[in-house]
Amino acid sequence: QLQLVESGGGLVQPGGSLRLSCAASRTTLLDYAIGWFRQAPGKEREGVSCISRSDGDSTTYYSDSVKGRFTISRDNAAKTVYLTMNGLEPEDTAVYYCAASGFSFDVQDMCIMAHYDYLGQGTQVTVSS
Q1: Cα separation of 110 and 59, whole Å?
Q2: Which residue, 97, 88, 86, 79, is CA-closest to 29?
Q3: C-beta of residue 113 within 8 angstroms of C-beta of residue 45
Q4: Which of 12, 53, 54, 56 could form a disulfide with 30 if both were Cys (CB 3.0 to 4.6 A apart)?
């Protein structure tokens, strides 16, 4: 059973930055596609950014709402996947979850929650002045 742990959330002012981390206990994430999803109060969970397995071509996906502001990346040595968030807006306030899947997907299917088998506990991101 893959266990995912997110960290790096917090309170930040509009325009600020945060970097979220997703790591797995006792294993690497090389063989998994990794997705970052978020859920704001009263809203459905949405796919924010996803990255393919390391044996692929490192394909990435970004939702339109974060494109140009967020960057997903892998640090294979650290066995961690990061979500670097710049230019944060109050609308980015949500609980952010990382998820993992052992399968490969076409880019248009990469960030669909139902395709992921493992989900972390989540980390709260609050953007407020």
Answers
A1: 9
A2: 79
A3: yes
A4: 54
- Strand segments, DSSP code E, in 32-109 are 33-39, 46-51, 60-62, 70-75, 80-85, 94-101
Number of residues that make up the chain: 129
pLDDT tens figures, 72-92:
999 877 689 999 999 999 999
Longest dimension (CA), the chain: 42
Among 7, 6, 5, 10, smallest CA distance to 88 is for 10
| Tens digits of residue pLDDT in 32-63 | 999 999 999 999 999 999 999 887 677 999 99
* Phi, psi (deg, nearest 5) at residue 121: -80, -20
Phi and psi torsions of 103, nearest 5°: -100, 165
